[in-house]
Design a protein that fits this description.
Elements (H helix, E strand, L loop, with lengths): L13 H35 L3 H29 L1 H21 L3 H29 L2 H31 L4 H5 L1 H15 L14 H19 L6 H23 L13 H31 L4 H7 L1 H21 L2 H17 L9 H29 L6 H26 L10 H29 L30
């Protein structure tokens, strides 16, 4: 399977520690960026004189390219060398981050964020694949556990770090911080990480499928964000997005080596858990986007206070996600995938208490603790059910599809929720207008979560015994479920 032989690096060796360090640094770059930017949005809007649509695109330009290309990024690593593509992703991400940090206008920032997403699609699957391809089988599970644990810590401190940077050096350092991380990560990878590739990787890359998928997401996102105007251009863009989606399905059904094989959805369990994923992560995407703004625009929190306020959710996931997975192994996934979204829905409704001058201990913290409990309950069982619903040989592909689906759901929510809640282009400049729209948005998020809970109760069943179990048991990322790579044979 591996062009350069079977993996034999031991975790306790100096090389093993260097490999772990560089993969943690690489994955943390992308993970940090997905959580810290929300906290910086109000200051970005003030500094660049951007309206709400520009802030939505600041989040979504990154998510469009990341969600659309992440499956292709993993395939490139398998074909051309995982270390090579990982380092390329790190360098690409750093250059795009530099462009973000130096952007003089919101338009240039949005374009640079789209470039950042391409780098993220290259390095995100590559970091875990390097661990799978490098470490001796006896050490692999422990290495993956350390990688996911340290990555979870990075995700947990992301909002706090973002708030500190915005309050202190300024919002541009949210992006510029990636440059020194890349300057540390890339040389270590080139010096200490062995190269590996998959000899089974053959055929042509599904570049057309990846391009159509990303184009469809971009066009539909544009139509949703700009729909307030109701112009003919918006209608045409939405129609073009739907046409691109239909073309994507057609291409995937007829290509010999599709990026997204349609037959994987022949598994009813896999289809069901991805429907649950779409509901859950759409609600999460909208929640974290709007909550970071609500705390600053309406409640009057500083960026540092707003970032710190969000810590309990990711901290709970980091501390208890592995135990939740073990409990789900005993009870089956149906119960946690039903109860978890309901807990998160309650948290969304509790957020209605957060208004002008909201007290953190009595108004904000209870909602975030319930939110964290709900995410702890559902994320680990969701990942396990995805892996258990397909053949072991396709577990990595199934995990990638599920991760991409979650990110796509989040970006659609960020585009659609302000529209559904009646937020105007300048809503974030008015505490009264934003608070009223936020109060309309949270019940919408709660309703989507209730739908996800109902789908889980109706469609999810206990997996067959002896199925594939996840190696990433510790998780702290709130934007997408953890990735799982194919295991070496």
């Amino acid at each position: 399977m591996y062009t350069w032989g079977m993996p034999d690096v031991r975790l306790a060796s100096p090389q093993g520690r260097w490999i772990l360090l560089t993969t943690v640094l690489g994955s943390s770059m992308a993970m940090l960026d997905s959580t810290v930017v929300n906290v910086a949005l109000p200051r970005i809007g003030q500094d660049l004189d951007a309206n709400l649509a520009a802030l939505q695109w600041t989040v979504n330009a990154y998510m469009v390219t990341l969600a659309g290309l992440i499956l292709l990024g993993g395939s490139l690593g398998d074909r051309y060398g995982r270390r090579k593509i990982f380092v390329l992703g790190v360098v690409w991400f750093a250059v795009a981050s530099l462009l973000c940090g130096l952007a003089p206008t919101s338009g240039i920032l949005i374009a640079a964020r789209a470039l950042q997403g391409i780098g993220g699609a290259l390095l995100t699957p590559g970091s875990l694949a390097l661990i799978q391809a490098s470490f001796h089988p006896d050490d692999r599970s422990r290495a993956v556990g350390l990688w996911s644990g340290f990555g979870g810590i990075g995700a947990a401190v992301g909002p706090f770090l973002g708030g500190w940077l915005v309050t202190g050096p300024g919002w541009r350092w949210v992006f510029l911080l990636n440059v020194p991380l890349a300057l540390l990560c890339a040389p270590i990878a080139l010096r200490h990480v062995p190269e590996s590739a998959d000899q089974r990787a053959h055929g042509r890359f599904d570049v057309l499928g990846a391009a159509l998928g990303a184009l469809s997401l971009a066009l539909l996102t544009y139509a949703l964000i700009e729909a307030r105007g109701g112009s003919l251009a918006v209608a045409l863009t939405g129609a073009a997005g739907l046409a691109a989606a239909v073309a994507f399905v057609h291409v995937e059904r007829h290509r010999p080596d599709p990026m997204l094989p349609p037959d994987i959805f022949a598994s009813r369990q896999f289809t069901a858990v991805n429907l649950v994923t779409l509901c859950v992560y759409a609600a999460f995407g909208g929640f974290f986007f709007l909550t970071a703004l609500q705390l600053q625009v309406v409640a009057g929190y500083s960026p540092l206070a707003a970032g710190t306020a969000l810590l309990p959710t990711t901290a709970l996931m980091l501390l208890f996600s592995s135990r939740s997975g073990a409990l789900a192994d005993r009870t089956g996934p149906r119960l946690p995938l039903t109860v978890g979204p309901l807990l998160c829905a309650v948290a969304m409704l509790l957020m209605l208490r957060v208004g002008k001058g909201a007290d953190y201990l009595t108004d904000v913290l209870p909602a975030l603790l319930v939110m964290g409990a709900g995410m702890v309950t559902l994320v680990a069982p969701l990942t396990a059910t995805v892996l258990a619903s397909v053949d072991t040989a396709r577990a990595g592909l199934a995990s990638g599809i599920n991760n991409a689906a979650a990110r796509a759901a989040g970006l659609v929510a960020v585009a659609a929720l302000p529209l559904l809640a009646g937020m105007g282009p300048e809503a974030y400049r008015s505490p009264t207008a934003f608070d009223a729209a936020f109060d309309r948005a949270m019940p919408i998020c709660a309703g989507v979560l209730v739908l996800g809970s109902a789908l889980a109760f109706a469609l999810v069943r206990r997996p067959a015994p002896g199925c594939r179990r996840p190696e990433c048991r510790t998780h702290g990322n709130v934007t997408a479920p953890p990735l799982e790579a194919d295991r070496p044979g």
